[in-house]
Amino acid sequence: MRIALGIEYDGRAFAGWQSQPHGNTVQDILNRALGQIAGNREVATVAAGRTDAGVHAAMQVAHFDTEASRPLNAWVRGVNALLPPEIAVVWAREAGDDFHARFSAFSRSYSYFLLTHPVRSCLLAGKVGWYHQALDVAAMRKAAACLLGRHDFSSFRASECQAKSPVKDLQRLDIVEDGGLIRFDLMADAFLHHMVRNLVGALLYVGKGAMDAAGMQALLAARDRTCAPPTFMPDGLYLTGVGYPEAFGLPSCCEAGRLKLR
Length: 262
Known about the structure:
Elements (H helix, E strand, L loop, with lengths): L1 E8 L16 H12 L8 E2 L8 E10 L11 H4 L6 E9 L11 E10 L12 E3 L5 H9 L3 E4 L14 E12 L2 E8 L6 H13 L5 H10 L14 E7 L19
């Protein structure tokens, strides 16, 4: 039986999603809890996307195969009873063999939350990014428009990225300002390693006047990571949704899980 899961997590305590030898990743911890519910059998999850250390998820989607027959509620409440408070399974659904959490997805959505204030916030530490000065949001929106569409995003790709192609279709890059909090909403068919954090870092350079829209166009055309600003901090980054064909009958995965992040 194949089971699909919707998962949310606070990434601060973990070394990212992907399993590691030390075992302190979201995937490792989730696999162990699922294995206990499955009768102490080994369980291996496959996720829609890998998130880095310190990155959060309001809606990650994963699947696993099991021979254990359990009510769906056991894969939610039962597993949650074995998970640390920073990880929660939100829903579970039976899925056909043709469903694959990664390869069946046609889009991924992320949001980045950036606090602009002279003083960092201790209450929001690890939950939002921070910059100490006000930013020119109008200039950032103008530069963001240059990035929309299908492009080679090599200038925003981490050196250790394992994606077969740097060409991605960026379908959405909205920038919303609410007081001292700026939210970047992005959606693409897929993202390169560190791509969102690198895009936010470049847009921050625009916002502080170190680059303009023409510079962003030139940076994109350069297809050279060494020409771009540094990778921005992971703190404010959230995986907020994964798009799947309606035929799979999954809960709406295209928006932020139970939390309406603002």
